Amino acid sequence: ASAAVTVLLCALLTCRVRCAETRAKPSNIVLIVTDDQDVLLGGLSPMKKTKALIGDAGATFVNAYTVTPLCCPSRSSILTGQYPHNHEVRNNSLSGNCSSPQWQKGPESQAFPVLLSKLGYQTFFAGKYLNQYGMKEAGGVDYIPPGWDQWHALVGNSQYYNYSLSVNGKEEKHGDNYSADYLTDLITNRSLNFLDTRSPVHPFFLMLSPPAPHAPWTAAPQYQKDFGDVKAPRDGSFDKPGKDKHWLLRQPANPMTASSLAYLDNAYRKRWQTLVSVDDMVEQLVKKLDSINELNSTYIFFTSDNGYHTGRQFSLPIDKRQLYEFDIKVPLMVRGPGIAPKQTVEAPVLNIDLAPTILDISGFNVAAVNVDGQSFLSQMAPSLRNGTARPFFLVEYTGEGHPTGDPSCPRLGPGLSQCFPDCVCEDAYNNTYACVRTLGSGQNLQYCEFADSESFVEVYDLKSDPHQLENVVKKVDPSVLQVMNQRLIKLQSCQGQSCR
Ligand SMILES: *[C@@H]1O[C@H](CO)[C@@H](O)[C@H](O)[C@H]1NC(C)=O
Ligand SMILES: *[C@@H]1O[C@H](CO)[C@@H](O)[C@H](O)[C@H]1NC(C)=O
Ligand SMILES: *[C@@H]1O[C@H](CO)[C@@H](O)[C@H](O)[C@H]1NC(C)=O
Ligand SMILES: *[C@@H]1O[C@H](CO)[C@@H](O)[C@H](O)[C@H]1NC(C)=O
Ligand SMILES: *[C@@H]1O[C@H](CO)[C@@H](O)[C@H](O)[C@H]1NC(C)=O
Ligand SMILES: *[C@@H]1O[C@H](CO)[C@@H](O)[C@H](O)[C@H]1NC(C)=O
Ligand SMILES: *[C@@H]1O[C@H](CO)[C@@H](O)[C@H](O)[C@H]1NC(C)=O
Ligand SMILES: *[C@@H]1O[C@H](CO)[C@@H](O)[C@H](O)[C@H]1NC(C)=O
User: Fold this and answer.
1) pTM of the full structure
2) What percentage of the chain carries pLDDT values higher than 90?
3) How many Å apart are CA 52 and CA 56, to the nearest integer?
4) Using CB atoms within 10 A of its CB, is residue 386 exposed (0-12), middle (13-18) or buried (19+)?
5) Closest by Cα among 151, 90, 80 to 114
6) Nearest Cα residue to 337 out of 383, 376, 374
């Protein structure tokens, strides 16, 4: 008997050793997050290389959404996998928890890069982090969020030149010499350098966050003449009056002025020009990963923090922050092991799903993490995971305003913001809303409630009205409204499992 036990024990031991030896190193992960890149108004058109190298090589998600269309809250959702009502970052200000001490002590200390780092990933960040990052009240450039081995983060909001970086906690100032300072290229260069100097023993995670195509839309010199005759598309809801819509959308002049049109066409073109450098970034990264033999064991995610509109939206010139598709829908393409090429995925996925998906890929037990989202690995790599799509989801937004009126728009009172050009305001404190969306099984319904003095409700049937021209709140069966209202109430206070 003892001989048999010895044999068994040996077999177990050898297996354990052998299994440990042959257990594959977890896959590497690259996450690219652009700033304000739409997908519905042609935002991916200037990125042919990215579409070929990531989209055609893997999965393109046609129903990817941010749970909140504003940079800092959205980026906080990406990092934590949580809805804003759980991470409590409400806007781009410190007082709204953007990179605030409370955020740093709370949600940021458990964000997914911390967990990846604990698993042994080498972690690298470059680019724009959170809008208030690096400010004195947010800990200055000395402060490096936990979980990052290499840290090259922009102080404040997106810039292309004349900015400061925190390079591993030390301030590095940049001017406006293209070959030394252009931020998108600098992010590319530093990431390539990281890949050259990484340890081959451990997997790596890179998060690259270029400023493009955010204002001030400064293209690299060699791209400043590109797309000379491109204009914002005139289809869909372009310059249509905002009928039966919430208060803010009943204000803009319709039709728009010629100067507003010229302004937004110029913005549209310049946004595309800045994205060409991001397209170069993707190409160079893929080439580098290939040359160091890591391309086939690396997942590459490409997405944006929120969508954007340039005039298409009911005579609003340029911005994000609205509940409509062009502002909440984002690009999302993923390539990597187990993802068949040239897939189009219809299932709805959210930016709060990125953290659980990335952790799932890394081998982390996703059931044990405090996220509201869910892994979408099953949607893009069914050979690796089983899983179902979610039936409905929440989009929630807290409007930004200014406590005082804008002196250049004397006719407007306080409480508004983004009143440019032509004193058309794109945001207000009472542009605060929550929407529930049912998408799948033949349904595509959006139900939104505003926290304004009218308790305004907007309802769209996107199957018959993809451009959200007609608010059908007075036409749909009241029982449908009731179901949506109940779902909304539940989702607005959901946490973890109850959000899924
Ligand atoms: C900021 O976060 C803290 C704790 O995380 C929370 O108590 C506070 O209400 C948040 N502030 C806002 C404006 O939501
Ligand atoms: C950068 O700052 C310098 C000095 O203030 C200024 O002259 C230059 O125009 C700025 N460059 C850009 C691209 O804003
Ligand atoms: C990036 O690297 C390229 C190639 O070495 C170089 O020409 C360029 O000046 C660098 N740009 C920045 C901003 O570092
Ligand atoms: C711009 O940066 C490059 C590369 O760092 C350098 O060789 C060149 O001298 C700089 N040009 C100016 C005008 O400072
Ligand atoms: C990736 O490609 C390299 C070189 O072609 C090969 O040695 C390796 O086994 C491949 N790895 C995977 C996970 O397919
Ligand atoms: C998916 O579920 C089926 C049925 O339970 C099972 O046979 C299969 O192995 C699962 N696939 C994966 C990738 O987990
Ligand atoms: C951000 O949120 C805080 C807390 O609610 C608020 O005091 C502040 O005015 C908001 N900032 C803007 C620009 O709306
Ligand atoms: C929204 O706020 C603005 C500015 O305070 C105010 O003028 C307007 O009447 C409000 N509208 C609603 C519907 O609450």
Assistant:
1) 0.95
2) 89
3) 5
4) exposed
5) 80
6) 383
Ligand 8 mutation target, pool 426, 449, 453, most atoms within 8 A of CB: 453
Closest Cα to atom 10 of ligand 3: 179
| Backbone dihedral angles phi then psi of residue 82, each to the nearest 5 degrees | -120, 150
pLDDT at 312: 66
Distance, in Å, from the CA atom of 307 to the CA atom of 305, rounded to the nearest integer, reads 7
Assign 1 a pLDDT band (cuts: 50, 70, 90).
very low
- Residue 3: pLDDT above 60? no
The 3 state secondary structure assigned to 414-425 is CCEEEECCCCCE
pLDDT, average across residues 225-233? 96
217 neighbors 270 (Cβ within 8 angstroms): yes
9 Cα: distance to centroid of ligand 5 (angstroms): 34
Distance 433 CA to ligand 8 centre (A): 14
Return the domain boundaries, the chain. 28-388, 397-499
Query: Higher model confidence: residue 478 or residue 407?
Result: 478
Residue nearest to atom 1 of ligand 7 (CA): 96
Closest CA to 424 of 264, 268, 253: 253
CA atoms within 13 A on the CB side of 332: 26
Nearest CA among 73, 47, 51 for reference residue 60: 51
Q: Which fold has domain 397-499?
A: Arylsulfatase, C-terminal domain (3.30.1120)
Phi then psi for residue 301, to 5 deg, are -105, 135
| Predicted confidence band of residue 313 (pLDDT cuts 50, 70, 90) | confident
Q: What is the pLDDT of residues 144-170, one digit of tens each?
A: 999 999 999 999 999 999 999 999 999
Q: Which CATH class is domain 28-388?
A: alpha beta
pLDDT category at 498 given cuts 50, 70, 90 is very high
Task: Copy the structure tokens of residue 413.
Answer: 């009172």
Phi-psi region of 379 (alpha: psi -120 to 50; beta: other; left: phi over 0): alpha
% of the chain at pLDDT higher than 70:
95
Identify the residues whose C-beta falls under 6 Å from ligand 5.
Answer: 293, 296-297
